[in-house]
Each structure stands twice: as C-alpha cells, then as structure tokens.
Amino acid sequence: MTAPDRPFILGLTGSIAMGKSTVAAMFADCGVPVFDADAEVRAMQSPGGELLPAIEAAFPGSTGPDGLDRAMLGSIVFADKDALARLEAIVHPAVAKRREAFLADHSEAPIVLFDIPLLFEKTGEDTVDAVVVVSAPEDIQRKRALAREGMTAEKFEGILASQLPDAAKRARADHVIDTGTTLAETQKAVEDLVDKLSEDLRD
C-alpha cells in the first residue's frame, strides 16, 4: 500500500531494447507523471551539470566544455568494478535527491512512474509500490538492439550479461507489458493498467 501523503509509485524496468522508453511515453500520455532516471543523469552530466566537478575529481580528464566524455569514462568503468562503484557513489545520491524533488512536485498525483533501467540490479523493488516490466520475444529484442547506432553483437551480448535475464524480471514483476505486439496493442495494455490501478486506489 502507498503512504497517504504520496502517490502510488510504479517502477518501470526492462532489458535493453525492450521498448521501455516507448512505454514510459505511453504512461505519460495517460497523464502519469514520469521520472526518467537516465534523463536526469544525462542532464547532470551535460555542460554545466552539477555532477561534473565530482566526476572530474574522481576520473581526471573525463569531462570538458562539452560535459562528460561518455566514451572515455565508459572505457574506464566498464571493466573495473571499483571504478564503477566510485562513479555510482557520485551519481546515485544525486539521482535520489532529484527523485525526492519529483515526488514533492507531484505529491497530488494518484500515480507516478519511476523509469529505472536497472531497478532489479541496482535500485531494488523496495523503492516502489509495484514493478512493471516491459518484455518482447528475444528475436525482436535483438533486432531492435542491433539497429541502434554504434551497437554490435558483441556489445549487445555484454550488456545482456550485465542485466538480470528477461525471464527473471518477468517472474519478479507485478505487471508485464508486452512490447512484441503492435504499438496500438501495447498502448491499450498501458491504458488498461492505469485504469485498473486508478480504480484500485479509489476503492
């Protein structure tokens, strides 16, 4: 149950190329405020972003006039767990602070959505009231991923290996949205879920 002084929090997650961003936009179209964790991080790492000084201190040369040099920093932390932990110690508290501000700004909304790519891997279900997982057949996922600019089969497999398998995510989900269908069908599934949750909250 949600606390009486805040909205019901849905956590949205899913593996790479499962259509999470598309589904998040569908929730927004239904009037559900969406907190996009990745977008917040990008904003804080852009030119003038609040995280740049701390990241530069921890990883000299990784920032500049254009903000964070993602390729350089990625090459450092991708294969170094200690370096990744140092980066996360900088980023995660800042994201949490923005998330709290988002909740305060939308305190009157019945439902809000937290778009969290690594919800199971990093954040944890205890930060939300229910979890929605977006999922599609493996062949569709692979096709979508490899169509992305800069994506290779090797990189795709590496990302998959770092994420909880799709089947495990679906098993732990409270709700699953199938994105292997048409956009209209996926939109209908999102609308039906928002209607059901809204009705449940009114009871």
Could you report the average pLDDT, rounded to the nearest whole number? 92
Look up the CATH topology of the largest domain: Rossmann fold
Percent of residues in helices comes to 40-55%
Secondary-structure content class: alpha/beta
Task: Indicate the low-confidence ranges by residue numbers.
Answer: none
Number of structural domains: 2
CATH architecture of the largest domain: 3-Layer(aba) Sandwich
Query: What is the approximate shape?
Result: globular
Radius of gyration: 18 Å
CATH superfamily of the largest domain: P-loop containing nucleotide triphosphate hydrolases
Q: What's the number of extended β-strand segments?
A: 7
Proportion of β residues?
5-15%
The neighbouring-strand order within the major sheet is 2-5-1-6-7
- CA-CA gap between termini: 12 Å
Number of helical elements: 10
List the helices and strands and how they pair.
Layout: E1 8-13, H1 20-29, E2 34-36, H2 37-44, H3 52-58, E3 63-64, E4 67-68, H4 70-77, H5 81-105, E5 111-115, H6 119-123, E6 130-135, H7 138-146, H8 153-162, H9 166-172, E7 175-178, H10 183-202
Parallel strand pairs: 1-5, 1-6, 2-5, 6-7
Antiparallel strand pairs: 3-4
